[in-house]
Design goal:
mainly beta, 8-stranded antiparallel β-barrel, 2 helices
C-alpha cells in the first residue's frame, strides 16, 4: 500500500506544474490556406478546429504535448462548386476527414511582451500521410489560456495530393497555411 501511495504522489508531483488546455470554441480560431498559382490565387478558411495541450508554464519545453485537428470538410473558398471539387477530388474528405498535428514544444524563447516564440516538432497528418514537421509559432499568454499563431508551408506532393492536369496553373504546388488558435485552461 505504501508503494502505491508513493507512486501516486510521485505522479502527482511530476504533473502538478502541467496545465491542461483545450481549444476555446468561444474565440475566433481560424485556419487559412493560400494557393498562389500563376493563373489564380485561392484562399480558403475554416473555424472548425479542435484539440488539447499540456504544458508546464515554468518551462514550456518540459513534458509538453499537444494535438490539434481541423475538419477539412468545412474548408470554404467562397465558391461552392470549387469547395465540393476540392473536398471530394483532391482532399478526399470522405476518406480523410481531418488534418492533424501532434507533437511537443522543443524550444521556447521568452519575448519582451511576455509571450513566447516556440518551435514545435511533431507529426503532421494530411490525406492519410504522416510527415514529421517542425513548425514555429508565436504564443501569447492570456488571462485564462493562450493564443498561438503560426504560418508554414506544405507541398501537396508530400501528402500525395495530386493536382489535375487541367488545374496545374490554378493550384499551387506549395500551400501556405496560417493558423490562429485560442486555448483555455481546463481547470483554471
Amino acid at each position: 500500500m505504501l508503494k502505491i501511495s508513493l507512486l501516486l504522489w510521485i505522479l502527482f508531483l511530476s504533473f502538478s506544474h502541467a496545465n491542461e488546455l483545450q481549444i476555446d470554441k468561444t474565440q475566433k480560431n481560424q485556419v487559412t490556406f493560400t494557393s498562389d498559382a500563376p493563373v489564380e490565387k485561392i484562399i480558403g478558411h475554416t473555424t472548425e478546429i479542435d484539440g488539447y495541450a499540456a504544458i508546464d508554464e515554468k518551462d514550456l519545453t518540459q513534458n509538453s504535448s499537444f494535438y490539434f485537428e481541423v475538419d477539412l470538410a468545412t474548408l470554404d473558398t467562397g465558391i461552392g462548386l470549387r469547395n465540393r471539387h476540392m473536398r471530394e477530388n483532391y482532399l478526399q474528405t470522405g476518406k480523410y476527414p481531418f488534418a492533424s498535428y501532434k507533437g511537443e514544444i522543443k524550444e521556447a524563447v521568452l519575448l519582451e511582451n511576455g509571450g513566447y516564440q516556440v518551435k514545435a516538432r511533431g507529426s503532421f497528418d494530411l490525406h492519410g500521410v504522416q510527415k514529421e514537421m517542425e513548425i514555429s509559432a508565436t504564443v501569447e499568454k492570456l488571462e485564462n489560456g493562450y493564443k498561438a499563431s503560426s504560418s508554414f508551408e506544405i507541398a501537396l506532393a508530400d501528402f500525395k495530393i495530386e493536382r489535375p492536369q487541367l488545374m496545374l496553373l490554378k493550384i499551387g504546388q506549395v500551400i501556405k497555411i496560417d493558423v490562429s488558435i485560442y486555448a483555455k485552461k481546463v481547470n483554471p
